[in-house]
Design a protein that fits this description.
This protein is mainly alpha-helical and 287 residues long. Helix content is 59%, strand content 5%. Strands 1-2 form a two-stranded antiparallel sheet. A two-stranded antiparallel sheet has the order 3-4. A hairpin with an 8-residue loop joins strand 3 and strand 4. The protein is elongated.
Length: 287
């Protein structure tokens, strides 16, 4: 993934948690003004195949819950805070990959469920009508499990962080993670095939994260930062770098935003960072 990060890291969306919360805010506004319009935004694979391509993206606007405005504001702030904490700890690129992969898996899961229903639920589809059946089916694919994947990742990364249960009782987030994990397992076992598809697809990104990062998820942010600094120092001391500025000596290990270029006017293989590329004195071979 490091090679991909070097190539595509500059396209990562900064503060993507805020953008997700803003999408929810738009969804709540639509729900207040014209709730029926939300039906045109849900993740409906049947309608997507019939030209409504925007549903691949707009299902993120559909808010996860609208029962109590007080708890809506609290939950939105909570998910924003834990999302930004993950982004600061993992880095913008890795958090983008985690969140967007969860959304991608959800879209793929909806199409897989549609294929399953065409093969095994043909009688029910005929009874309800194709459009009505898949419109009802689209309600299972929501941002609820996307939010849950963010919380589970936070609980796995910061297991010892305390949170206030009911605003009064401090409890470690790993305990809540275990409780929610048990609830999800129970819902998966007791649920029907529709909810199982939605749950498995939306939480697949957490499963991938856990399997690939289980040796690091229990580290605190300070420990992770010290580990990264140690690896950077080791690479610098052993000389395992691809780029090095001939003026200041900085390498790609000194910052993800550093760029290096060779100077065409210098005689020899002299490479410079972006700060010294146009300000250095050109090297001429007097021999």
């Amino acid at each position: 993934m490091s090679n991909f990060e070097k190539k595509f890291g500059k396209y990562a969306i900064k503060n993507i948690s805020l953008m997700l919360i803003m999408c929810y805010a738009v969804g709540y506004l639509i729900q207040m003004v014209n709730p029926a319009f939300l039906l045109y935004l849900t993740l409906n694979p049947y309608q997507i195949l019939h030209g409504q391509i925007w549903r691949i993206f707009t299902w993120v606007i559909v808010p996860p819950d609208s029962s109590n405005w007080f708890f809506i504001f609290i939950s939105l702030y909570f998910y924003y805070s834990i999302g930004t904490s993950l982004e600061r700890t993992w880095g913008t690129y890795r958090y983008n990959v985690y969140l967007l992969s969860g959304m991608l898996f959800t879209v793929i899961g909806s199409f897989l469920l549609m294929g399953y229903c065409w093969m095994f639920q043909d009688g029910l589809i005929s009874a309800m009508g194709v459009k009505g059946y898949f419109a009802a089916l689209s309600r299972y694919f929501s941002t609820y499990y996307v939010n849950m994947s963010i919380f589970l990742a936070f609980a796995a990364t910061f297991p010892e962080v305390p949170v206030l249960l009911m605003f009064m009782f401090p409890i470690k987030v790993k305990v809540l993670g275990i409780i929610y994990g048990a609830i999800l397992v129970m819902e998966f076992v007791q649920g029907h095939v529709y909810s199982r598809f939605a749950m498995a697809a939306s939480l697949l990104n957490f499963l991938v994260f856990w399997l690939t990062s289980r040796n690091r998820v229990h580290m605190t942010p300070k420990q992770m930062r010290r580990r990264q600094e140690f690896k950077r120092d080791v690479r610098r001391n052993t000389g395992i770098t691809k780029h090095k500025c001939a003026i200041c000596g900085r390498t790609e290990q000194d910052g993800d935003d550093l760029e290096f270029r060779f100077c065409s006017k210098c005689e020899g293989n002299y490479e410079y960072c972006q700060e010294h590329l146009y300000t250095h004195q050109h090297v001429k071979d007097n021999g």
